[in-house]
Amino acid sequence: MNSIVTSIIYILVSCIILIIAKGVYVRFLKYNMYKEIRSENYTAIVPYCGFLLGNAAILAGAFLGPESQNSFGGEFLYYILYAILGISLTLFSGFVAEKFILHKFNNTDEIVRDRNLGTAVIYFGIYIASGLIISACVSGDNPIYPSKVFGLLSTLAYYIMGMIFLVIFSKIHNLLIPYSLLDEIENDNAAVGISFAGNIIAISIILMKATLGDLGTWQQGLITYFIDISAIVLLLPSIRVLLDRIIVRNINITREIRNNNIAAGLGEAFVIIAFAILIFFMADFASIV
Residues 56, 18: contact at Cβ < 8 Å? Predict the structure, then answer.
C-alpha cells in the first residue's frame, strides 16, 4: 500500500482512538471533568492532559515499531491491540497513583473541591511516565522472540515493573526530602507536586533506555533494566546536590519548594528532566551487559 495512504489511515485511526480514550477516561473519572472546566477549575484538566500525551506517545511508539513481513492488515491489527493495551494500562496508572502513591487523602476532593494543583500534576506526571515506558516497549524488537505476542507480554511485564518501581521511588523520595511529601501535597503545596512529577517523568525517560530498541533475551533485558534502576537511585541525590550547590547556589531550593515556591518546583523538575534526557541519549547501559 502507498506510504501516503498508509500514513493518512494511521493518523485518522489514531485520532479516533484518542477520542475513544477520552471517552473511557471520562467514564472512569470520579468527577465531571466538563463541569469543572466550565467552572474554570484548571486542575481538573491537568491529569487528562497527561493521559492524552501518554497515550499519544504509546501510539507513536506502536507506529514506529519494527516492521515485519505481515500484511498491512496484520500490522494494523497489532497496532489496534497495542492501543487498547496502552489505554488500559494508562488508566490503571491512575489507580496506582490513587491507591499506592497519593493514598493518604481523597484525590477527587483535592482536585475538585480544593483545586489542588499538586495532586493534579502528579497524576499528569504518572500518566506521561507510563505512556513513555509503554511506548518504548511497543517500539522495540526482539531477535530471539520476534513474535508480536511476545511484544505484548513484554510490554505488560515492563509496565508492571515500572509501576512497582514508581511506588518504591515515592517512598525513597520521601526519605530524601526533609518534609513529608503527602502532607505537603494535602496542604496544597503545588511546588512539591511539580517537583515530584518532574522526578517521575525523569525516571520514565531513563527506564525507556532499558526497553527501547532491541531487547535481546529476557535475561539481558532484565539486567539492563536493573542497571537503569541503580542509575536512578544514584542520579537523584546527585542532581539535588548539583542543583543546590552549583545551579542555584544563592537559593535553598529544597526550602523554597517546601514554602510552595512554584518557580523552585519548576526549576527542580525541569533540571532533572534535562539530565534524564542527556542520560537517555548519551549513556550506553546495553554495553555493560
Answer: yes
The predicted model scores a pTM of 0.90
Which of helix, strand or coil describes residue 123? helix
Q: By CB neighbour count within 10 A (0-12 exposed, 13-18 middle, 19+ buried), where does 143 fall?
A: exposed
Domain ranges within the chain, ordered by starting residue: 3-288
Q: Is the dihedral of CA 25, 94, 285, 241 positive or negative?
A: positive
Q: pLDDT class for 259, splitting at 50, 70, 90?
A: very high
DSSP 229-251: HHHHHHHHHHHHHHIIIIITTTS
Which helix (H) or strand (E) segment holds residue 148: the answer is helix 148-176
Contacts of 67 (CB under 8 A, 6+ apart): 75
**pLDDT tens for each residue of 130-172:** 999 998 887 755 443 445 556 677 778 888 988 998 898 899 8
Work out whether the CA dihedral 3, 212, 56, 272 comes out positive or negative: negative
